[in-house]
Description:
The complex is a heterodimer.
Chain A: E1 3-8, E2 11-16, H1 21-27, E3 51-56, E4 59-64, E5 75-77, H2 81-97, H3 102-111, H4 130-139, E6 144-147, E7 154-157, H5 159-165, H6 180-192
Parallel strand pairs in A: 1-5
Antiparallel strand pairs in A: 1-2, 3-4, 3-5, 6-7
Helix pairs in contact in A: 2-3, 5-6
Chain B: H1 3-12, H2 20-31, H3 36-46, H4 50-59, E1 71-76, H5 79-83, H6 86-97, E2 110-115, E3 127-129, E4 132-134, H7 139-149
Parallel strand pairs in B: 1-2
Antiparallel strand pairs in B: 1-3, 3-4
Amino acid sequence: MSEILLQIDGKEVKAGEGMTILEAAQGVGISIPTLCYHKNLEPYGGCRICTVEVESGGLTRLVAACLYPVEENLIVRTRSEKVDRIRKMILELLLAHAPDAAGLQDLVQEYGANKDRFEKEASFCIHCGLCVRYCTEIKKKNAIGFIDRGIRKEICFIPQIAAKECNDCKECFELCPTSYLQAVFVLTESLAFPSSKN
Amino acid sequence: MDNNRIDQIIDKHQGEASSLIQVLLEIQSEHHWLPKAALERVGEKLQVPLTRIQHIATFYKAFSLVPKGKHQVHICVGTACHVRGATRILDTVEEATGIKPGETDLDLKFSLETVNCLGCCALGPVMEVDGKTHGKMSPVKTAEVLKIYE
């Protein structure tokens, strides 16, 4: 595998071909915040919190670090003023949905996001897709999926599959940054298969 | 809708998972909606998980997971039709069928939807029944058109 040289936050970084900016940065201990990223899952690029500024050929662009493959001589800035502003905005928008989500609080502190900036529209899910992708890609049970689209998009268990598989697994629970997944599961359980509870 | 018919549709597409949307569209156009049993059958035959089918069936407006009437009535309430009296047309249809937009009557005869433009503003107010466009509608004409489909 050929090596690619790039610069992240002023540091010379060596990376392998096909690696993403996020992987290259993690390799040298530069942390980029993520919400929808999971090392064992296909990159999703859903939350955009890992947005970084890249400069190549004199052009500066904003890209999602979890998706963008490393390039020779790429200059990456993970904490520029612009990047911080964008991350703060993304957080504030997510906070309108899940104001007290445990998985967001560290980032809220770090970027000084104001949870009251936007009117609350508590749906509690931030659509990171971790539960859906974990169930599909790793467990291959397909017990949970998305339904609908746009502002009405939400996660939804398939009751028949959930009744059989979920009680012994629940591995997705700890992935959820907001605990909304657990709530949906309890609701599905009590509506569709209450008898399975001990 | 029986399983044989669903199997026929699937076979027509060589049972390929990539034809999922085409299969669903065909079931939708024949049966007017997608019953749960049909979705399960399609998932089984095409080897597609139900979560994926559910995601697609709820994503596109062309699919319905609740029973729809035999005739789809679309009333245009776009700007041009609106100023030419689309509300009166809508009222007439609501009165004749007893349903509001988004609903289906008990005999599964009509489903009513409003749309925002059908692209033929010169014909406004426009009503579309089963894809056939009826232009320059008046409340009297609307009632007559609906009678054809009863």
